[in-house]
Amino acid sequence: MDLIDESRYDEQMRVMVLPALAACCEEGWMEPARAEDLPELDHPGSLHYLCYDAAKFDDLREDGATATFRGAVVISYGFTENARKYSELIWYFLLDGYSVCVLEHRGHGFSVRDVDDPSVVWIDDWRRYVADLGKFAETVGLRYAGDRPMGLYGHSMGGGIGAAVLERRPTLFDKAVLSCPMIAPVTAGIPNAVAAAASEVVCGMGFGKNRVVGQKRFTGELDMRPYRGASEARVRWYHQQRCETPEYRTNAASYQWVREALRLSRSILDPQACARIETPIQLFQAGRDVWVRNEPENLFVRRVRDGGGQVRFERFPDSVHEIFSMPNPVLEDYYGRIFAFLDGPVEPLDDQC
Question: Would the pTM count as exceeding 0.85?
């Protein structure tokens, strides 16, 4: 498929991509999942989602569309992100024949918030993310997949959540792409074990909803330093969406989010949990990742394989964390591998990690 021209990125997104997505989009709301291992919420609220119908997209006769329905893909995005950020990726999935369903995680986008500060992300229990994504996939996702396969695309935090769903719901997804998944987060130069102990203490003192020291509110200023080597056109477009939409300005972790992210990490890496995974996985790793740690991703791959699971491991050594923000020559390879995996038979690579 032809990638969006970086030199005309804003124009093509505005004139071609966004109108087409709007024409095949369904907006909806879902009640949060209830699970025996989760406490009841005083104000459960509702979770926002966007779904894109491949049949309606095909009616638009866009250039490059396969006009072959392949199923549905559920997108589970990363920390402080939103559904709009994935517009370009959604466009490519639709061109390849997939309907796409995107749940906005609790505390993100237009979904319910549990803290007054709109810049802060808080969650009471990591299992809530997992239960909500599982419910969304088995209700909304399967409806869009029909009698065709349902895949998962999980990035960063959303990839960590997705990995936990694969461990708890081994037959829910047919295939899963985990792109730089948060098997373990980077904790500002502090070892994860130290950060875990410190966050437990702070939360125990009643400061779990406070913004982590050093984390900042969204200001509208764009610092390109963390994105060196990425496509500036893509990064600036993503940033502009946040500037234009107040609901997209989450920017900082709470102490309780850090605590739960590290609890999630320990659960994902449990060898018995890894052995429960049956879904074939394509895992991508970025060599210049500053947000999630590479070695826990490697350990996850080894433990899933040791448990009998199938994982294809691909490393992009010169990529930043958001591989989908890289220039077109990198994306051509990245998306080529994604669609070869989703569209074709599962053939494990003889790779190392």
Answer: yes
Single-letter code of the amino acid located at 5: D
What confidence tier does 42 reach under pLDDT thresholds 50, 70, 90?
confident
Q: How far apart are CA 268 and CA 74, in angstroms?
A: 20
Residue 36, pLDDT score: 84
Close Cβ partners of 271 (under 8 Å, ≥ 6 residues apart): 303, 306, 307
309 — alpha (psi -120 to 50), left (phi > 0) or beta? Answer: beta
Q: How many domains does the chain have?
A: 1
Task: Report the 3 state secondary structure along 244-311.
Answer: HCHHHCCCEEEHHHHHHHHHHHHHHCCHHHHHCCCCCEEEEEECCCCCECHHHHHHHHHHHHHCCCCE
Domain annotation covers residue 246 = yes
Residue 170 lies in a domain: yes
Whether the CB-CB separation of 311 and 181 falls below 8 Å is answered with no
CATH code, domain with 237: 3.40.50.1820
Q: Look at residue 353 and tell me if it is in a domain.
A: no
Tokens for 76, please give them.
């589970």
Half-sphere exposure of 178 (CA within 13 A, CB side): 30
Full domain range(s) for residue 163:
23-343
